[in-house]
Amino acid sequence: MRVHVISDMEGVAGIVKWGQTGGDSKLYQEGRVLYTEEINAAVRGAKAAGATEIVVMDCHGAGGDYTFNSLVPDLLDPDCEYVVQSEWTEYTAFLEEGCDAALFVGMHAMAGSESGVLSHTVSGQAWQNLRFNGTLVGETGINAALCGHFGVPVLLVTGDRAVCEEARALLGDGLTTVEVKTGLGRFSARMKTPQRARALIEDGTRRALADLSAVAPYDPGRPCEIEIDFTSPDRLQEYANRKGVEVVSPRTIVVRGDDWWSAWSGFFF
Questions:
Q1: How far is the C-alpha of 198 from the C-alpha of 105, rounded, in Å?
Q2: Which of 215, 204, 182 is nearest to 44 (CA)?
Q3: What's the mean per-residue pLDDT of the chain?
Q4: For the chain, which has fewer Cβ within 10 Å, the N-terminal or C-terminal residue?
């Protein structure tokens, strides 16, 4: 069994402040350890479930040389391999080769989510709403669509309560979720201890991989229309001249394609 672990940082137990997610401060270095150990918990669970190949892909945009490079390599479980990419959603080789399941660890809720810890979509400053064929989605939806395009189901999502609810609404009740914290606001939460969170993630991973058919690969629909509302007209201008972009209002663009991947990759990179 081949398993892809796709991870983000804001949904990790113990992380509630932006300073823990970037900037090369002591807080961020501590956050990197918390992050890596939740990944390790998923790797252990996958091994227990029979995984023979596990590839981890860090999708956290920490800034600078730490972007998609926040894991602490020396702490990673030796039974996985990991990817450092230059652009988010750039690495697709493992999906293209054919893997059996994706596990999302450390996810956060979409922009505007009530009580979503560190909630945002792609950019906390620029993106306000994202829709795939009219369905409001966040980064869980983006990663799920990436996997689904190559026929890979998402079987596990871990993070705060808000993202777990968001993921089940999008992917269905067959999805296994592990809630490691409950948001009290955007920058506060009631949390499981890191040790408890890791135990829950390991167990949840093992349970999720027991049934590879529990969740269908996510397809937003064909053809696919991607619609993005920006926080202000000047932030829209960063994308206005990209391939296939149609500006439909001072703050909104639309991109269309025969499927999700052709629409997304046509403008995002």
A1: 11
A2: 204
A3: 97
A4: C
